[in-house]
Each structure stands twice: as structure tokens, then as C-alpha cells.
């Protein structure tokens, strides 16, 4: 069990990071949610990727879009690129870890899609390569990272860089960002999207 002091320090660091996030980034997250809703309603899709815990965050985001966040709405196309284990292991084996996501972005990405890349350090080579591949293919490329400057933030169209001293705190604020992005996405749904119940589904 953690002693009181480390637990207090962890919570205090998180409180400070969330307070800074609230002051600096909530408008950006809302704008991203609205833009993502526009792109997916137009037939685009979200591609998302990360490594380790950030891969789990990326898959959390895509699950909320294909499934639902809170209210009922129709499903939208969103793919976590690490989740196809056969493709991941084949690409890693044949081309190397650095090209793990770039090759998938080139294969699946289309102009009008959005690519979201998550990295606590912002220094993952495979994500930087994915960002460059996405921009070459005409995708809109966003990143959630730790403190700037970092190579991933420099490689994307727009980045949200969390100011925190530890990767754990950055990752916790990334989860808040994912949830707020989903809230903004759902709020941007127009009446044409409506509700899609199980009995209405084809």
C-alpha cells in the first residue's frame, strides 16, 4: 500500500495538471470534437494509435465512437491501428517497429479522415512516422502528447501538449481529454443523426 505522502503528491500533481489543462486546452478539445463530428458525418473515419498505455487510450477513444459515450447515437467509423494483431506483427516483423503505424495509415487513410496519435513523451518514432504518412495522404493529423516541444507535436497539424512532470500524470490527463472529446463530439450531433436503436438497425 502506498504511504500517504506519495499518494498525496500524485493527486496534487494531477490536480495541478488538470487545472492547467482546463485553463489552456478546453476550447481546443471542444473544437476537435466538433471537427471530428463534421468529418465522420461526411463519411470520414478516425484512425488512432499509441504505444503501451497510450494504445489503450487510443482504443478507448475508438470504442466510444463505434459504440457510444453516454447518449444513444448512430455508430461512426473509428479504428485503433494497434488492435489488428496480425497486421501489427507482420509489419513489425517485415518492416520494423518504426513503420508499424505509417504503413497502416497509408493503407487505410483517405483524404477527409482524421488521425489521432497519443504519446506521453511525444518522441515515439513510429508515431512521428505515422504523422508524416498521414499528412502526405491528406489526413488531418492531431496528437496528444506530454510537454512541448517534442517531435510528434512538431509533425502534426495540431497538438495538445499536457504540462506535467510524470508520464503517469500526462496519461491521466489524456484520459480526461478523450472523455471531453467524446462529449464535444456527441454535443455536435445534429438532428439528422438521430438515435439508432437496435430495432431500427438494418
From TrEMBL:
This is SIS domain-containing protein. It comes from the Bacteria. Transmembrane segments: none annotated. Residues 36-191 form the SIS domain. CDD domains: SIS_GmhA. InterPro entries: GmhA/DiaA, SIS_dom, SIS_dom_sf, SIS_GmhA/DiaA_subfam. It comes from Streptomyces spirodelae.
